[in-house]
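Quiz preparation item.
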């Protein structure tokens, strides 16, 4: 049995979620995939997948083995790359994840520029507003907002962002600039389902407190909520990058800065590995540089004008 080939088959089945899809990706036949998987399970003496007529799912042993397979194949590919005559020119596949709006605004354009510079790298970008398990889901690099809790990952913090309250200049002229978060209880607040919901969190002299907010407009996504605030519908609480373009254009004004919660880190994260492929190492440095430029180019101004 060709163990490296068997590992590749196993990884594709896990990533694609079915034998048929994996066979299509690898340009192989379904019977060949079935035989390879069966031979691998027999060799290891464990079942890697639980299979029914409708679905296929990794067993606990399969999840552990999957992480080792990714490391082994990554090391093999890196060794081959080191012998390539085009030294320093990365190639291969990279899977990247980021939050949806941050990814749309900043990560995806940065990845596009990376592929333009390194056309031999095939990048797949996954945007999710949930914590993606990099190891289980086969992701090479993630951009995270907030503290890192997974000790199996390395995090390189690039900068920090704020959680801000904003409103349009027109709304503030009509209703006044609040001096304390409690005043928001009597105001119209534009909300979106996550993460703040009907309670907005503030800090004062080292203590945290929540303020209940209400309003006649609610979204399940930040982008339309930001636009509604710019249209004069009321106050909104957002992560600073979500509102930064409209703040820069003076269509939104930041208020209640003295009561903002502590800043949250923006980090480039990746699994612990003794030997990262060249493409991963180069991409990490690329993304860190892109994020630093973003932070310098589009800061959120302080203080109401």
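Solution:
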């Amino acid at each position: 049995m060709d163990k490296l080939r068997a590992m590749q088959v196993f990884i594709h089945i896990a990533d694609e979620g079915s034998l048929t899809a994996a066979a299509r990706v690898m340009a192989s036949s379904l019977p060949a995939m079935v035989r390879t998987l069966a031979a691998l399970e027999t060799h290891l003496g464990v079942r890697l997948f639980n299979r029914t007529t409708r679905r296929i799912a990794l067993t606990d042993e399969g999840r552990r083995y999957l992480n080792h397979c990714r490391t082994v194949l990554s090391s093999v590919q890196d060794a081959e790359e080191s012998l390539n005559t085009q030294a320093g020119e990365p190639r291969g596949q990279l899977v990247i994840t980021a939050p949806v709006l941050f990814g749309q605004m900043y990560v995806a354009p940065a990845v596009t520029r990376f592929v333009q510079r390194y056309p031999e790298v095939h990048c797949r970008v996954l945007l999710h507003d949930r914590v993606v398990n990099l190891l289980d889901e086969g992701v090479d690099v993630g951009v995270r907002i907030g503290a890192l809790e997974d000790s199996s990952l390395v995090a390189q913090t690039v900068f920090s962002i704020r959680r801000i309250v904003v409103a349009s200049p027109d709304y503030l002229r009509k209703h006044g600039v609040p001096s304390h978060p409690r005043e928001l209880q009597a105001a119209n607040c534009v909300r979106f389902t996550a993460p703040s919901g009907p309670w907005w969190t503030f800090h004062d002299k080292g203590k945290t407190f929540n303020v209940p907010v209400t309003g006649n407009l609610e979204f399940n996504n930040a982008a339309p909520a930001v636009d509604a605030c710019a249209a004069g519908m009321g106050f909104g609480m957002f992560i600073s990058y979500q509102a930064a373009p409209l703040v820069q254009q003076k269509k939104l004004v930041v208020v209640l800065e003295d009561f903002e919660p502590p800043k949250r880190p923006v980090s480039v994260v990746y699994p612990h590995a003794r030997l990262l492929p060249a493409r991963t190492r180069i991409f990490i440095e690329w993304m860190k540089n892109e994020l630093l430029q973003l932070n310098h180019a589009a800061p959120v101004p302080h203080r109401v004008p």
